[in-house]
Design goal:
With 341 residues, the chain is α/β, with parallel strands linked by helices. It has helices spanning 30-41, 56-62, 70-76, 86-97, 113-116, 137-145, 164-174, 177-180, 187-202, 204-219, 224-233, 235-253, 256-269, 272-286, 289-298, 305-315, 318-327, and strands at 7-8, 22-26, 45-50, 66-69, 79-82, 106-109, 127-133, 152-158, 182-184. Strands 1-9-8-7-6-5-2-3-4 form a nine-stranded mixed β-sheet. The radius of gyration is 23 Å and the shape is globular.
Length: 341
Amino acid sequence: MAQQARIFYQQDCNVSLLEGKKIAIIGYGSQGHAHALNLKDSGCDVIVGLYEGSKSWKKAEDQGLKVYTAAEAAKQADIIMILINDEKQKAMYEKDIAPNLKAGDMLMFAHGFNIHYGLIVPPKDVDVTMIAPKAPGHTVRSEYQAGKGTPMLVAVQQDATGKALDMALAYGAAIGGARAGLLETTFRTETETDLFGEQAVLCGGVCALMQAGFDTLCEAGYDPRNAYFECIHEMKLIVDLIYQSGFAGMRYSISNTAEYGDYITGPKIITEDTRKAMKKILSDIQDGTFAKDFLLDMSPAGGQVHFKMLRQKAAEHPSEKVGAEIRKLYSWSNDEKLINN
């Protein structure tokens, strides 16, 4: 059994280590805005780095932040957190950040993809660390504002100063992570488990399962609206129960009929062949096959042809049209409701 990783909390972190340090947040999307605003509210000296013409430039300024080009922000900063899309990081790093790194700087990431697969190779005289929130950016922000926090991962890839972990923990505490817990990991573990979870379970696995259930009921002659309710709409209800109380709590809350069906049918869906497919998915992530294919498709030469084709195909699934109509019925949705209560 692997050694249990450490979890760090508020008392393990010294936010005062960030005093006198200028922090540059590169990117102002979901995570970028949350990190920058939380750091600002924690009293840190934070700036934002964007490309010229970015739609987020004015938004960040309107929220009280100083904005510069990515290159200028990197030049000014002692700590640089990269929060742009994985496929754009290498080119941006080489153009804007690498020429402006100073010995003793700390380069930070919220996902290990570019470091783990060797796309970005920082100089040996800088710290390389990770703080990866286990929540979308808007949740990182709202939980911080509520005086709480979201769990986060912390990792050190390169410790040039001897203080990399302490500095990363200080950053994690400043954006609210230590209020919930900072779980120690590695760039490799975070990258491989994150990609596997997304592909085999959270996005790829769950979406394919829901749509297969929808298709099965529709092909058997049932009303697509019934199929949507039973196989897609109710997924949130079940996941919320699991999120709150685990599998046992979910099973406590459902009927005996549903629980019995759960036990006898789950193994029929997740067969040995399914588990073999999962192992192949993990293997492709571990050996770099997935990263190579993804980056090729995202490159100028690839033109995102395969990606855009897959996106279009997914958008055309019958459940999307039915779902758009069903969601208009929700009393908690204000967008073009079919019935007003």
